[in-house]
Design goal:
Blueprint: E1 2-7, H1 17-28, E2 41-47, H2 50-61, E3 69-73, E4 83-90, H3 92-102, H4 106-121, H5 129-145
Parallel strand pairs: 1-2, 2-4
Antiparallel strand pairs: 3-4
Helix pairs in contact: 1-4, 3-4, 4-5
């Protein structure tokens, strides 16, 4: 898988390009060679600050707040010979805040959001409940294979 990463923000821990590529490839699974007549899949990842994430979320989804990941799929074209999947825009600040609030390991939350975003790029959605359950089950399976826990299980708190 080809991966290009643009880091417009750099604060705190962020995964390496190698980790991002592995998580994205795991999400693609058997779909890895389906776009572009079997061409090597290609993905662009932009790591953006909260202000940029908020602008893009407002512009494309009508939600005036920064978000964890946005997926911009490349529309397939009959003459397309590239494997370009599209672009993920990830906001590290939102991921850090969510991981802390949800009592999750930051690396596990990053992996989840990359997998989630790539699944959107290949056409999965969670607008309807049945589709959301199907997508969640797939995320759980992929993340388990990568060695991460179920992201939808709420960890027990030790207030002790």
């Amino acid at each position: 898988m080809k991966l290009s990463v643009a880091r417009t923000v750099r604060s705190g821990w962020q995964p390496s390009a190698r980790e991002l590529r592995a998580w994205a490839a795991a999400a693609l699974g058997r779909n890895a060679g389906r776009r572009g007549g079997g061409a090597q899949p290609e993905l662009s990842v932009l790591l953006a600050g909260p202000a940029r994430s908020r602008r893009l979320n407002a512009q494309y989804r009508g939600r005036d707040r920064a978000t964890n990941v946005l997926s911009f799929p490349m529309p397939p074209h009959p003459a397309q010979t590239t494997g370009l999947l599209g672009e993920l825009v990830i906001c590290p600040a939102v991921l850090r805040r969510e991981a802390r609030a949800q009592h999750k390991a930051l690396r596990a939350h990053w992996a989840h959001m990359v997998v989630h975003g790539v699944l959107h790029l290949i056409g999965l959605d969670h607008a309807r409940q049945a589709d959301a359950l199907r997508m969640e089950r797939r995320e759980i399976r992929i993340l388990r294979r990568l060695g991460f826990p179920n992201p939808y299980r709420v960890p027990e708190r030790d207030d002790g």
